[in-house]
């Protein structure tokens, strides 16, 4: 009822015309006494009310159009004022673009903890046809990475290219720096202490392991470089990702998948780093045949052929130690 009354009030002129027209029509049908003059007057009154309603609607329409135009003008002026501010937000150097780049850079890099590091490296070894390593002495490389990658390549009947960069065992200064660094990580760690001699033997063992595997696999291509600079990080780059770790296994690692910008940049970084390091003429290793368990004499002749003269202080016991580290290498983190 309330809605009906509201509608009547809003359309009062039209409602009066409608009632008047119906009244006259009913009287004309039921009462012959209604004269023609009355009917004509009623018609004129209805037409007047109709004309008034039309004029009122036109007036309302014009008022509405003026209000709409004013709103459009106000909106245009307001948007004009906002354009410089929007450019600051959405432009090439705007806050929105910077935020997007920040989000993208975060998504490029995954932080790995604990067992995730070993799982990421194992996954990377499973299907790769290349491996680039840069680090200290390459203990984990010769114990796990190289034999595991070769086994997967053999199963796939595929080739494997390995690039290795470790510290130069003939450079006593860099070996001393590295040994001091490793001792500083955990001075009370059990097992063999990190000394200059141990650092040298670990690096020599990695070179020997590369030559030993090379003679036993026709699928393997190896490039070994020796650096006079030590790094506190280890870089393992495969066909699918690059994993950056540190000597302390408790430290979180970083993983960047192939296709991300920083994967390519790390690839370039490792390539240029190798170019600045001393190349080991690995092809000369073919001059010395290595047994399944190389002899001390074979290893001495191998390093002579490679131009890596062993220190005078290294007797047969030290050379045998190098052989054990190379051929029977243990996972240092198992």
From TrEMBL:
Q: Which domain of life is it from?
A: Bacteria
The UniProt transmembrane annotation reads 5-26, 38-55
Q: Which organism is it from?
A: Micromonospora chalcea
Q: What is the name of this protein?
A: ATP-binding protein
Q: Which UniProt keywords apply?
A: Membrane, Transmembrane, Transmembrane helix
């Amino acid at each position: 009822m309330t809605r009906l009354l509201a509608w009547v009030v809003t359309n009062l002129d039209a409602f009066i015309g409608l009632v008047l027209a119906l009244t006259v029509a009913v009287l004309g049908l039921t009462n012959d006494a209604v004269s023609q003059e009355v009917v004509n007057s009623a018609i004129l009154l209805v037409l007047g009310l109709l004309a008034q309603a039309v004029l009122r609607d036109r007036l309302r329409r014009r008022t509405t159009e003026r209000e709409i135009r004013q709103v459009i003008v106000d909106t245009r002026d307001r948007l004009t004022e906002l354009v410089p501010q929007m450019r600051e937000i959405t432009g090439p150097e705007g806050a929105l673009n910077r935020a997007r780049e920040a989000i993208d850079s975060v998504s490029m890099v995954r932080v790995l903890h604990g067992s995730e590091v070993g799982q990421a490296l194992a996954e990377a070894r499973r299907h790769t046809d290349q491996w680039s390593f840069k680090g200290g002495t390459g203990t984990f490389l010769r114990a796990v990475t190289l034999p595991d990658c070769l086994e997967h390549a053999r199963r796939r009947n595929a080739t494997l290219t390995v690039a290795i960069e470790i510290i130069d065992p003939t450079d006593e200064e860099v070996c001393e720096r590295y040994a001091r660094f490793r001792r500083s990580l955990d001075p009370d760690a059990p097992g063999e202490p990190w000394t200059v001699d141990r650092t040298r033997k670990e690096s020599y063992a990695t070179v020997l392991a590369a030559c030993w595997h090379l003679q036993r696999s026709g699928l393997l291509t190896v490039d070994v470089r020796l650096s006079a600079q030590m790094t506190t990080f280890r870089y393992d780059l495969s066909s699918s990702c690059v994993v950056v770790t540190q000597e302390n296994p408790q430290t979180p690692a970083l993983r960047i998948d192939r296709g991300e910008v920083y994967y390519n940049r790390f690839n370039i970084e490792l390539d240029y780093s190798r170019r600045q390091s001393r190349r080991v003429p690995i092809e000369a290793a073919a001059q010395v045949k290595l047994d399944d368990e190389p002899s001390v004499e074979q290893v001495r002749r191998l390093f002579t052929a490679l131009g890596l003269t062993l220190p005078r202080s290294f007797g047969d016991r030290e050379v045998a130690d190098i052989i054990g580290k190379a051929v029977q290498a243990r996972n240092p983190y198992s």
